[in-house]
Amino acid sequence: MRLRSWVGALLFCVVLVGLVMSPAAAAVEPEPEPSFDMDTYRATVLEVSEDEAVESYFGEAAAIQRVRVRIDAGPWEGEHELENHLTGNPAYDLRVAPGDRVMVGGSEYGGRSELFIVDFVRDVPLLYLVGIFAASLIIIGGLRGIKTLLVLGLTGIAVLYLLIPALLAGWSPIVTTVAISGIVVTVSLSIITGFTTKTLSAVIGTVAGVLFAGILAGVFGESAHLLGLHTQEAQLLMFTTEQTFDFRGLLFAGMILGALGAVMDVSISIASAVEEVYRAGGDRSVASLARAGLNVGRDVLGTMSNTLILAYTGSALPLLLLLMAHRADLVGVANMDIIATEVVRALSGSVGLVLCVPVTAFAAAYFKGNQAVRRDSKVPRSRGPSRSR
After folding, report:
1. Are 13 and 204 a contacting pair, CB within 8 Å?
2. Shortest CA distance to 69 belongs to which of 110, 118, 107?
3. Radius of gyration of the chain measured on its C-alpha atoms
């Protein structure tokens, strides 16, 4: 059974990789856009001297930093001096100090070469954090942790090489997201738990919950006239690309993806609980197993619904603080596009989370209950004691 599960998981991986490398996937990759003639290089700040500060529009001190940096590698390798212009706006300024690691951009325009600070080097601490995450999974989870890392990698591949190119090619955001979500859920749960009735039940519950969430988001998003242009990134996408996107569809697709992880977590928890009740023996009827799954689902719902709502609230926390600080009218706030979008996102995902509970419980109970009936029917009945003559 264990070998069959691993073989099945390997087949699913091969299918997913085949989809990624297939001509269909390659066909949806966008044509490369012309880019600026600029490359970035890692550098270390050696010395900093600041010119006389002047009053800026933002009320803070604006200045020019004279910076000497040492570029690690590339055609600009070595020490260079450059200017770092500060506007007084902390949202845009990069005030550096000796010893800072920075990304330096080098460009050539009209025969002139120019160096300037682009940003701080941030990938190194991020890599350390990724290493800590991977190590904790392997140490605590063992083989299951290694499978989890594999699943995370395949999920990233599906998003980067299937979902994003398909959306850029103009495919329907909702249909594409639901289809790829189904692939991700099936492959992920199959690798982690193997090809079992537990996995099948969790997949059915997850897909049902995500579909419910997507339908609710679409219906109420349409009725609330959500445009999908409430973020700066969506507006930039509209004005900086020649391609026409279905921004409302992208909004609903994002809602589906946002609810996917929580719904999958609840579904596998319920399916695992039904599996353990079945193994423990006792009443293995479909009704009894479904009741056990529903009881577990009710316990999980409280915390998982809070997880979704708190996650979305956390992402909108600066906006909420801004509105409260200016004592904004509650009715006016509720009718803002960005607020209505977050409410629809959180509540549609939460409803999908709730509805996945009975679907998973009944699916798992049906499979395990029928398995118990088939197993009991194969057990020969013991004969009574024979009468002595």
Report:
1. no
2. 118
3. 28
Examine the pLDDT at 74 and tell me if it is beyond 70: yes
Phi, psi of 49 (to 5 degrees): -130, 135
Distance CA 370, CA 362 (A): 12
Tell me the pairing of strands 38-50 and 54-55: unpaired
**What is the distance between the alpha carbons of residues 63 and 49, in angstroms, rounded to a whole number?**
10
Asked whether residue 322 is domain-assigned, the answer is yes
What's the length of the chain? 389
> What is the structure's pLDDT at 136?
94
Neighbouring C-beta atoms of residue 100, cutoff 10 Å: 18
End residue of a domain, out of 69, 91, 121? 121
Structural domain for 267, as ranges: 143-378
Cβ neighbours of residue 54 under 8 Å, at least 6 residues apart? 61, 62, 63
Domain boundary among 121, 151, 168: 121
**CA 246, 252, 255, 260: dihedral to nearest 10 degrees?**
-100
Of residues 308 and 25, which shows the higher confidence score?
308
To the nearest whole percent, how much of the chain has pLDDT over 90?
20
Q: What torsion, rounded to 10 degrees, do the Cα atoms 73, 74, 79, 80 define?
A: -140
Give the CA dihedral 42, 48, 51, 52, nearest 10 degrees. 120
Same domain, 105 and 156: no
pLDDT over 60 at 381, yes or no: no
Strands (E) located in the chain: 38-50, 54-55, 61-71, 78-86, 101-109, 112-120
Indicate whether 27 pLDDT > 50.
no
Supply the pLDDT for residue 33: 45
* pLDDT tens per residue across span 169-220: 888 888 888 889 888 988 988 888 888 888 999 999 999 998 888 888 888 8
How many helices (H) does the chain have, and how many strands (E)? 13, 6
**CB of 220 closer than 8 Å to CB of 344:** yes
344 and 231 together in one domain: yes
User: How many structural domains are present in the chain?
Assistant: 2
Q: Which pair of tokens denotes residue 232?
A: 């700066």
Q: Which distant-in-sequence residues (6+ apart) come within 8 Å of 27 by Cβ?
A: 169
User: Looking at the domain assignment, is residue 238 inside a domain?
Assistant: yes
Instruction: Say yes or no: 93 and 235 in one domain.
Output: no
